[in-house]
Amino acid sequence: MSGQRVDVKVVMLGKEFVGKTSLVERYVHHRFLLGPYQNTIGAAFVAKAINVEGRVVTLGIWDTAGSERYEAMSRIYYRGAKAAIVCYDVTDSSSFQRVKFWVKELQSCEQHCRIYLCGTKLDLLENDRSKRQVDFHDVRDYAEDELFQNVAEDYVHFTPFQVMTVLLFFLQRKMEWI
């Protein structure tokens, strides 16, 4: 099947201002966004073609709005997603609480979607570790909870610039899920 084209829908979810758009911009356009930041309204779409084991894989990345008023609309964007990157800001505990909402949503609507948790804004901790409000161990405990049953190994905490790389690694290991 060398040279076969495969499309993979990836959805970015999380509370507003956790850095979803910045992650996408960094991965797709190799640039880091500087403020002032604006809320995404509805969703933004971008595609990136990559080569995985001789196949051209086009990642269709949906960057969804994080504001609660757009939650109902987000369901439209994650329908049919093969992967979801659910983001939270490590300096904002309320953003991690919203992760739990998105995970439940995905599990009830898209049972075959792979879910990845992504802690963002780790750079803000470089000079002041006391700003951390979401502990890595809490994230791991949540991922290992019965909510995830036997697939907890797929639910890992990633730094912002590792997320897409890990997704690509996953694709290389598990091409059969496409």
Automatic annotation (TrEMBL):
PROSITE patterns: RAB (PS51419), RAS (PS51421). One of its GO terms (cellular component) is autophagosome membrane. It holds the Pfam family Ras. Signal peptide: none annotated. It catalyses: GTP + H2O = GDP + phosphate + H(+). Coiled coil: none annotated. Keywords: Autophagy, Cytoplasm, Cytoplasmic vesicle, Cytoskeleton, GTP-binding, Hydrolase, Lipoprotein, Magnesium, Membrane, Metal-binding, Nucleotide-binding, Phosphoprotein, Prenylation, Protein transport, Transport. GO terms for biological process: autophagy; protein transport. It is a lipid-anchor. It is found in: Cytoplasm, Cytoskeleton, Spindle; Cytoplasm, Cytosol; Cytoplasm, Perinuclear region; Cytoplasmic vesicle, Autophagosome membrane. Its cofactor is Mg(2+). It is an enzyme of class 3 (hydrolase). GO terms for molecular function: G protein activity; GTP binding; metal ion binding. The keyword Metal-binding applies. Interacts with ZFYVE20. Does not interact with the GDP dissociation inhibitors ARHGDIA and ARHGDIB. The small GTPases Rab are key regulators of intracellular membrane trafficking, from the formation of transport vesicles to their fusion with membranes. Rabs cycle between an inactive GDP-bound form and an active GTP-bound form that is able to recruit to membranes different sets of downstream effectors directly responsible for vesicle formation, movement, tethering and fusion. RAB24 is an atypical RAB protein that presents low GTPase activity and thereby exists predominantly in the GTP-bound active state. RAB24 is required for the clearance of late autophagic vacuoles under basal conditions. Belongs to the small GTPase superfamily. Rab family. This is Ras-related protein Rab-24. It comes from Geotrypetes seraphini (Gaboon caecilian). The gene is RAB24.
